[in-house]
Write a structure and sequence with these properties.
The protein is an alpha/beta fold. Strands 4-3-5-2-6-7-8 form a seven-stranded parallel β-sheet, with helices on both faces. The radius of gyration is 33 Å and the shape is elongated. 39% of the residues lie in helices and 18% in strands. A hairpin with a 2-residue loop joins strand 13 and strand 14.
Amino acid sequence: MDGQHGPVFVVSSGKGGTGKSVFAANLSLALRQETGESVALVDMNVEFCGDSAHASGMSPYVAGRSTAGLGTGRGIIDLIQNINAITPRSLLTSIPPSASGVTVLNLKGPGEEKREIPHANVGSFIDVVSRSYGLVIIDLSSGYSEMINRICLERANGIFVLLNPQLLDIFNSIKAFTILQQMMFSQQMIYPVLNKYSPKDDFSLSVIEAKIQRDIFYSIPRDDDFFSSALRLNKAGLLLQPKHVVSKAFADLSAKLWSLDLCSPQKTGKEYVDFDVSNNKVAVAVTAGNARIITGTSGEHDEIKILIHQKLFDELDLKSLGEEAIQDEQASLEIKNKIKAVIDRLVDEEVADSVGRGERMLISKEVMDEALGLGPLEDLLQDESITEIMCNGPDHIYVEKKGKLELTSQKFLGDKYLRSTIDRIVMRIGRRIDELSPMVDARLEDGSRVNAVIPPLSPDGCLLTVRKFSKDPLSIQDLIDFDSLNQQMADLLKLCVEARLNILISGGTGSGKTTLLNVLSSFIPANERIVTIEDATELQLQQEHVCRMESRPTNIEGEGEVTIRDLVRNSLRMRPDRIIVGECRGAESVDMLQAMNTGHDGSMTTIHANTIKDSIRRLETLVMFAGLELPSRAIKEQIASAINIIIQQNRQLDVSRKIVNISEVTEMEG
C-alpha cells in the first residue's frame, strides 16, 4: 500500500435501530469476497461498541496481544493514544488477520466504557489504517453530533446513510442529508441505503425517494429470520447463509461498488478538513500530501465565486433579505440559513466534480461572507493581533499589527463588492452613503469604528477604514504593562476622576485617546448617571447607569441631522452626573465647556492636538466655530474655569503609545 490508501466507507444513520452494525459487518465480508482485498472493519460506535464484532462473528483485535508494546487495554484507544508509534507495517504485524480476511478493530473493549477518547489522534489513526488495508469500513454511532463521527466522515471516500422504510427513519434521514450537505459533502459521496425493505411496506421505494429527494443507492431485503439467526449464533449472515437473498443483495452491492470503481486504491494526500477539537470548530481547509487547494487570490477561484454570486443574485433578492434580517434576530438566523443552503447547492452544482471538499467549503464560506458579511474582512476581524483594517480600493487591504502596517493577500472580487459591503455596514445603523453624501462614519455590530469614502471623492475606488473594537476592554493595569504610564500616574488619574475633575485628553490620530478615555471612565462610581455622546459609538463603559447617544447625519432629503452639539445640549436636560463626549471637533465644544462650568463636574472628552498648549489653542478655535462673537480672552477664561486636567498622549517613533504629560490648568497666562 506504499503511496496509496484503501478507500474508506463510513456507515451512518440519522437515528439508532437501523441495523448499521449488521450492515457494516456483512458489507465488509461481501467486499472481501468481491475484491480479494484485506478489509478492516473499524467499530467507532461510541454508544454500543462491539456490535460490529458480534454481528460479524469475529473476535475483535485485543491490544494486549500487540507485539508493538502499544498498550495492555482492550480496544484501539491505546493505539490511537500512541499514534506517533504506529506505522502501517507495525499495525499489520501487531494485529493477527482473521480467517475471513476481515479484521475488526473495536474502539473500546470491556471495562473501557469510561475511557476518554483522544480525539486529536483519531484522524491520523484512520489514515494509518487506510494505508494498511485494501478497504476500510467504519461503523459510526447514530447521528452526526459526535466529534468522533465528524472526524471519521472527513476521511471518508463514501458515506452510507442507512434508513428503514418507516416514517421516523425517513424524517431523520432527511435531516442527515441536510447536515452532510452543510458539511459540504457532495451528493456523489453519499449513498442512501434502504435497509430491511419489503415491497409490502407502507412506503414504496418510489415514495421514499420522493420524500428524501434522492435516489436510493441500494436496498437490502428484509428477512427477520436471516438477521436474528445470525445474531443468535454470533456469525455473519453472509457466512451462515451464503445463498440467501439477503446475502446475494450484499454481494450485488459490493459488485456495484466495484463496478463504479469505488473500491480502487486511492493516491495518498487526499484532501480533508480537520477539526480543532479544543473548541469544536472546523478549520476551513487543510490538505495533506499533493492535494490542491485554491487560495482566495487565484483567478480561477474568483471566477467561480463571481459565477455563484451571479446565480445567487438571480435566485434571491439579497438587499431586501438583508433589510428584513436587520429587523429581527430570529428572522436574521432563518435568512442566513436559507441563503447558506442556496449557496451550498450552487457550489455543489458548479464545482462538485472539479474541486475537493475543502475548496468547496472555502468557496461557500467566501461567497456567504460576500453576500451577507464583510467579505475578505471577516477573517481579518477575527484576528486579535490586528487593530486596524484599511482598504485602499478592492485590491489593496492593509492591516495594522503591533503598530506596523502590512499589506495582506486578501482582496475583494471588485469595487462593486467593496461598495456592497460598505452599504451593508451603514444600512444596519440607519445611515446612508451615496453621491450626495459620499462619506460616512459608522460602526460594526461588535462596536468597531468604520469610516468609508466612495467616488467621486475617491477616484481610485472605495476607501474603507475599520478601527477594531476590543472585545475585552483594557484596564489601567494593561496600560501600565504596555508602558503607556507608570503606577504613580495611574494612581493620580484615578484620584482625579474620583475627585470629579474635568479632564481633556489630547493626542494625535491613533495615539490611544479613546482607549485612555475608556480606562478613566472605569473609575467613575457605579452610582452616578453617565451620558456618553459620540459620532459612532466606541466607548465601552462597564457601569450599569449609562445613557449612550449617537449623532445622526441628514437623510436623503437633506433633513433630520442631529449633531454632537444637539446631543450635548439635550444631555443637560437628562440629569447627568457626568457627560462624556467621544471627541470635540466642532461647535459642540462651547456647549461642553458650559456643561463643565454648570454643575457637571467630572466630565471628560478628547481632542486632536500634538501638545498641551496646542490643545488649548485648538479648543479655543473650535469654540469660535459656534459663531459666538466672544473676545479671545473670554473664551480662554471659559476654558480655564472648565478644564481642570489635560492629559497628553502621543504615539512614539517605535509605534508605542505613551502619556507624555499630565497638566493642571490653574490660571490664565498674561
